Amino acid sequence: GNSVTQMEGPVTLSEEAFLTINCTYTATGYPSLFWYVQYPGEGLQLLLKATKADDKGSNKGFEATYRKETTSFHLEKGSVQVSDSAVYFCALSVPYSGAGSYQLTFGKGTKLSVIP
Amino acid sequence: DARVTQTPRDKVTEMGQEVTMRCQPILGHNTVFWYRQTMMQGLELLAYFRNRAPLDDSGMPKDRFSAEMPDATLATLKIQPSEPRDSAVYFCASLLAGDKNEQFFGPGTRLTVL
Q: From the candidates B103, B104, B110, which should be mutated to test the interface with A, based on the most A CB atoms within 10 A?
């Protein structure tokens, strides 16, 4: 089956620090990989995605590269801001996989707190 | 700005009462998902539909939960009877299968069962 493992939090960083949140996966087929962000009291929002090996997804200063050889999709940002405080979820889906198509498998989430 | 809407945003009820949560997917999206989020279990997929037909509801307790799509613009999740362990945030998400493979989430319904 499919699974996603991401580093457990919470993670607390000072403003302008470098962020890495690790994510590894197992999947049958060829997954698409996603990072979703959830701000307090809100639903999940897609942050970035990658659909094939070596693709790099990027958005709002965040980046993640689809590494097939290490089955990883680590999230990075060079300089975090207080407004980045949220819960980050790594996820995968395997399109065109029959009844399971597009179903997302999520990691447990990593809570990030950025302090001024 | 197309978005998924959910009602109610908050619901407090007593054990044994019926609860109905509603979701309006983005117009044109043909796949709808229901998730439950708790601190202990994280995000769990309860059920999902494509073109209004249920594809998978294996994550849903069948004895008390039911999910339907009466039409393409409305999905419902019903709990009868509700129990305190059902307290959670319930999210609906939609996507257009074959498009960018992106799920768009609603703001959630926070359910508290006393």
A: B103
